[in-house]
Amino acid sequence: MMHSMPVCLLALLITIPSLSSAQERPRMMLWPDGAPGMMGDVQNDRPNLTLYKPKQQNGCAVVVCPGGGYGGLAVDHEGKQIGEWFNEFGVTAFVLRYRHSPYRHPIPLHDLQRAIRTVRAKAEDFGIDPKRVGIMGFSAGGHLCSTAVTHFDLGKKDSADSIEQQSCRPDFGILCYPVITFTQDFMHRGSRNNLLGTDPDPKLVKHLSNELQVSKETPPVFLFHTYEDTAVPPQNSLVFYMAMKEKNVPGELHLYEKGRHGVGLAKNISGTSNWPKQLQDWMKVRGYLGK
Description:
Helices cover 28% and strands 17% of the residues. The radius of gyration is 18 Å and the shape is globular. It is α/β, with parallel strands linked by helices and 291 residues long. α3 packs across α5. The two termini are 14 Å apart.
């Protein structure tokens, strides 16, 4: 069912041209009056969501976090292309431009949590189910999403901001060749340095090694990785999945042989190109795509 956007929501939106066509997509600033902790006033200082709305919505929504080592954002093959793919089967996607280096933790996490709260708060306006809001991250964006599924609150009920009153716990997570650990020898040190600096507090390093933070409250998670990934070795996904299993958190892990780091939809990689279909099947089995 299609929903029109009320004036109050449209006031927060600006339009930007699509990279591949003349089509324009709405972009919403997470903090229209300026994000907390802003260091300047350029693109990386203003976290925002770009809306990918399908012609026929099934009520499911996913906030997509591109990778980039916490030093940039791969907004095409890990953002725009993903949003368009979700639209093919009725999922409403929101591609998040979160702040990255020189910003440090907890700024990227706060941006993602704000995005989840915003989507829930405006669920009726967007035509989605606030109980079917997931997140998806690639590489360092996968680390960010693994942080969000293990570090969350159920809403700040005493906040004067109605958005902050919403829960930032995702209903499900999708981790694509994710950075997970910051303590083991197969970590991606560049992501850790960009997020925490070169001499981080050991307690913070452990706190954000998310294989150590999985709990029974962690939502279901789908993961995929490739054997040939040498930048972020597949052990990252393995340790997170094993932690899920230990805590009885349902999910799926798919390991493919072919494909270097950063394959995106992997359209031309035999075998690995199956991952989007397997994700869609998982989402259907779990009921995220509706009846």
